[in-house]
UniProtKB/TrEMBL annotation:
This is Uncharacterized protein. The keyword Coiled coil applies. The lineage of its organism: Bacteria, Pseudomonadati, Pseudomonadota, Gammaproteobacteria, Kangiellales. The chain crosses the membrane at residues 83-102. Keywords: Coiled coil, Membrane, Signal, Transmembrane, Transmembrane helix. Residues 113-151 form a coiled coil. InterPro entries: TPR-like_helical_dom_sf, TPR_rpt. The keyword Heme does not apply.
Amino acid sequence: MLLLVAISFSSLAAFAAEQSQQKNEQKPEKTSNYQPLIERYILDELRAVRQDQLILRADMEEKVAHAKLDASDRIIRYTSDTLNNMFIIITTAASILVLMGWRSMRDVKSKLNEVVETKINELTQEYEDRLAELEGKLRKRSQEIIDAQEDISKSNELHSIWMRAGLENNLHQKIKLYDEILAINPTDIEALIYKADAAYELGDYEWAFSLANRAIDQDEDYGLAYWQRACANAANGATQEAISDIKIAIEKAPKLADELEREAAFEELHKLEEFEALKPQI
């Protein structure tokens, strides 16, 4: 009887182990359910940016059209006032000549023509100067609007690329996205640093070192650039250069001192007294 009970328990244990193994083998790989939502969010954001850009363009065109219409109204009013003033001048001049007793109509006509022509030339020149000034202001304002629109479009495009880079897990694709940012804005030091970090993660320490140097050339006060170069120097075995760059990075950005313990690139430097001296005193 005991033998049968023992055999039954051993059979149940073997069956349970087999079922557990089958469940482990058939357990599907857990995938993220948020990827489609993130992609949908990015597409919605891009569509919203395009719609905002179209609305902004329509508003700018409407404002420019109104400005041109106002300028035309001013020109018409100015022309009308000029003609009225001309007739007033003619009438006044004729009255003065009659009162002065000029007898020769030929002299009167000649004098009137001279006075009217002089006054018309003066008014015409003044009108042309004002019109040229108005056209210059309109042209300048239109260019400012166009430049502002281009800046907004460029900022939206850069924001979109940064979002894509933040969601990208492939380091090669990240580098391509950073290159797109640098193509739009070659002085973007943040893109250089992130590109250097991706190159470091790929194991290309010389490339990471070169990119960090480019960032330092653009901004000598940017502490994170020295930090990235220190990582590349540490990976290449240049410990003294790495220590020197770490010191400069902490001087430029004191908060980086808190990252010394967590930075994996400095693992080989922990045995150095100079490195330990850089750690914040608790």
